[in-house]
Amino acid sequence: MTVQANPEQLGFIGVGVMGEPMCRHLATKTGLPVLVSDTNPEPVRRLAAEGAIEAAPDRLGAEADVIFLSLPSREALEAVLFGERGLYRHLKAGQTVVDLSTTPYAYTLDMARRLQELGIVFADAPVMRTRAAAQAGKLSVPVGASAEAYARIRPLIATFASDIVHAGGIGAGQVAKLLNNMVLYETVLALGEAYAIGRKVGVDTQRLFDILSTGSADSFALRNHGMKAIVPQAFPEKAFPVTYARKDILYALELAEHAGVRASGARNLLETFDAAIEQGYGGEYAPAISKLFLEG
């Protein structure tokens, strides 16, 4: 499948919390026209003020050489790509579609197959790190793609990411992202338990977590989710919520089932997320699961 060497026009669909800053970096750093589309007009207007071009999905699908998708779920991806008014109606052979979303592994393979049947080049490039990292252009992105496709899209991804790795063939990017989040939130769960235990026996939890950071329990999760959210019990609703984290763990469990692995830690984590949602914490920042261990 031929990959066009030098894109002349880019497209971006889905400019939410993460998508908007990524699209902004593309529009301000590549020197290429960037067509942008979203059901919410406000971020589109902000991006248009900085050089992006508001476009209906059909125009974007027909004209953009490389199309980035940053969408919240497989259902949203399916609707945008293959729904009643999906992009597939307007795409043409040689275009490239890059999925920046967190997407189930099996669905990624199926999506890639359907696009390839249309002559479309596909790459999965789910983004890792925070909203602040997206705004700073310092995301981490594992990419699943052919070597040729990776070489083409890497300079574009580099406008919003500081760490980019060719993870392997199609689907490998999603494997890396899903397992990253599985390990991260299993660690967050352990931190929530440690916090509750320490607090209930009367230990200063800030001091406790400071001590953990000097030992073998030190981690990104401890220094960010633990010290910045769990210790102060601060769980803003505009950060990555319990419901989003649950979705990623559900996808990780689907991957584990596909691989024939009984991921007991992830199963326990999913049950914890479900309990947190039942308690009304679903919209809060995902480390809010720590509240469960303080109850009762």
Summarize the amount of helix as a percent range.
40-55%
CATH class of the largest domain: Alpha Beta
Strand order of the largest sheet: 3-2-1-4-5-6
What is the overall shape? elongated
Summing up helix and strand content along with how strands pair, one would put the structural category as alpha/beta
CATH architecture of the largest domain: 3-Layer(aba) Sandwich
- Look at the structure and give the mean pLDDT: 95
The beta-strand count equals: 8
Termini gap? 59 Å
- Count of helical segments? 12
- Rg result: 20 Å
> What is the CATH topology of the largest domain?
Rossmann fold
Layout of SSEs?
Elements: E1 10-13, H1 19-29, E2 34-37, H2 41-48, E3 53-54, H3 57-63, E4 66-69, H4 74-82, E5 96-99, H5 105-117, E6 121-124, H6 131-136, E7 139-144, H7 147-157, E8 161-168, H8 172-200, H9 205-212, H10 220-230, H11 242-259, H12 264-278
Parallel strand pairs: 1-2, 1-4, 2-3, 4-5, 5-6, 7-8
Helix pairs in contact: 8-10, 8-11, 8-12, 9-10, 11-12
Domain 3-hydroxyisobutyrate dehydrogenase-like NAD-binding: 171-284
InterPro entries: 6-PGluconate_DH-like_C_sf, 6PGD_dom2, 6PGDH_NADP-bd, HIBADH-like_NADP-bd, HIBADH-related, NAD(P)-bd_dom_sf
Keywords: NAD, Oxidoreductase
